[in-house]
Design brief:
With 489 residues, this protein is mainly α. Helices cover 79% and strands 1% of the residues. A two-stranded antiparallel sheet has the order 1-2. α2 crosses α7, α5 runs antiparallel to α6 and α18 runs antiparallel to α19.
Length: 489
């Protein structure tokens, strides 16, 4: 079966495959932050120390962010469907382990394996969608759904976590993954044929070791910085190691006949700008979500369950933006769509920066939440399309992995840097203004930084992306290989 066989599959079969892939992606993104609201309950049940509790979150981020490049390239070489199914199996098994954990180390180990499974399944999922939908209009719609579902998963993690923790047990935030995974494992092999790169290449082991080490060290440094600050050797040391490994990676890849990441692949203009602005966008949104969640609970006085339900309108805004996204992108093109959607998101974050302790939900919190979520829903599908533009059957997994990597690194860096600045602002003002006023000022300062970052991303897109209509850039910057992709059942 050739690469064109994806486009000849029936619309119903492709639609069903898209539903399954999006459902799994929703589950994977959900677990980025589903534990956040449940952390106090997990600490009390399993006896975590304060330092150990952070690793319930960090272990997932570390494995997910660190292994994406490696597994994305493995999907191209060994089979995208195969790597996807292995990843889903690994993720669901680890979810069961997390739900049954009786000791802290068991939960941390389960979260680490969950991250590994996500690193396998997430890039494979996006690359399968890229190859399933090859036409400009149909790919725009598919990416709109995929990107919107990813944003929805990030938000609903807080809603679901608050609801399950408040009404049942924190263990159910992990158990709910198992039936979703079983459904995907049963249906996907019937809907999608196997696909891999046509050129038989060996995995670049030195590149894989250096690239994985560099990304893992960077993510670890960012996570430690979020807890301890940049003055701590546990943060600064891994950051220096990440820089050294990244420089070595570039040298090795430039001299390798079959590199893990061809340097020419990174030079694709649309993809490079999309990945760079995704890094900034995700850093700002992860920081925004973290700051708002903490502010609502510690300053405004919401319970975990109420925080979860307070985020429900955010989901509605994302769905509305997702519905509009493909239509706007097809009419106005990538650059204009992203600039407008980024600016809407920045405006929403600025509105949220003004939330005061005594504000009502309807007038003080809801307007900013709706504007931010609308911009988020408009942005993610378009930037997803830009990030995989120009990819083919030879490198779809790599392009998807790069996009997922910058999302994870951006999220970790946003929490580490923006939250640290907001906390320092609070600490500086506590003595003179009191704890509540200082916490509110620190929160507002952090949110304003996040809004400025998103606005800077809009300026970068307007200045650097160029006037490229959606879909046209897929052929603009690099030729397609002559060899056709080989596939088999």
């Amino acid at each position: 079966m050739t690469s064109t066989s994806f486009s000849t599959q029936g619309a119903n079969r492709r639609g069903a495959a898209l539903v399954v892939l999006c459902l799994v992606q929703f589950m994977l993104i959900l677990d980025d932050n589903v534990v956040n609201v449940a952390l106090p309950s997990i600490r009390d049940d399993l006896g975590f120390s304060t330092a150990g509790l952070a690793w319930v979150v960090n272990a997932y981020f570390l494995a997910f962010g660190g292994l994406l490049l490696l597994f994305g390239r493995m999907a191209d070489l060994l089979g995208r469907r195969r790597i996807f199914l292995i990843g889903v199996t690994l993720f669901s098994s680890a979810s069961l382990l997390c739900g049954l954990a009786q000791q802290p180390w068991q939960l941390v180990l389960g979260r680490l394996v969950q991250g590994m499974g996500s690193a396998m399944a997430s890039p494979a999922s996006l690359s399968l969608i890229t190859l399933l939908y090859t036409g400009e209009r149909e790919r725009a719609k598919a990416m709109s759904i995929w990107g919107g579902i990813a944003g929805l998963g990030a938000t609903l993690g807080l809603v679901i976590s608050g609801a399950l923790t408040g009404l049942a047990s924190w263990r159910w935030i992990f158990f709910i993954n198992v039936p979703v995974a079983v459904l995907a494992l049963a249906l996907l092999p019937r809907l999608i044929s196997e696909s891999r790169a046509s050129q038989r290449m060996r995995l670049d082991v030195p590149g894989a070791v250096l690239g994985t080490g560099a990304v893992t060290s960077l993510v670890y440094a960012l996570l430690r910085a979020g807890d301890s600050g940049w003055g701590d050797v546990g943060s600064f040391g891994p950051l220096v190691l990440a820089v050294v490994l990244a420089a070595s990676f570039v040298v090795v890849e430039s001299r390798t006949a079959e590199p893990l990441v061809p340097l020419a692949f990174l030079a694709h203009r649309t993809r490079a700008i999309a990945d760079l602005t995704t890094l900034v966008f995700c850093a700002a949104l992860y920081a925004m979500s973290f700051l708002l969640m903490v502010h609502l609970q510690t300053v405004v006085g919401y319970s975990p369950l109420r925080v979860g339900f307070a985020y429900l309108p955010y989901c509605a805004g994302i769905l509305a933006g997702m519905w509009l996204s493909s239509r706007i992108a097809l009419r106005f093109g990538t650059r204009q769509s992203l600039v407008v959607s980024f600016l809407i998101t920045a405006a929403g974050v600025m509105l949220l920066s003004g939330v005061e302790p005594n504000d009502s939900y309807a007038l003080g919190i809801l307007p900013g939440m709706l504007v931010t979520s609308l911009g988020n829903g408009l942005s993610l599908p378009v930037i997803s399309m830009a990030a995989v533009s120009g990819t083919t059957g030879e490198n779809a997994g790599l392009g998807s992995a790069l996009f997922s990597s910058v999302q994870q690194i951006g999220g970790a860096s946003g929490v580490a840097l923006v939250v640290m600045l907001a906390t320092r602002r609070t600490d500086t003002l506590t003595e003179s203004e009191g704890s509540v006023r200082a916490a509110t000022d620190g929160y507002s300062f952090g949110m304003q930084i996040a809004a400025a970052m998103i606005a800077a991303g809009a300026i970068a897109i307007a200045a650097l992306l160029g006037k490229v209509p959606t879909g046209a850039e897929t052929e603009a910057d690099e030729p397609r290989p002559n060899a056709r992709e080989t596939s088999r059942q």
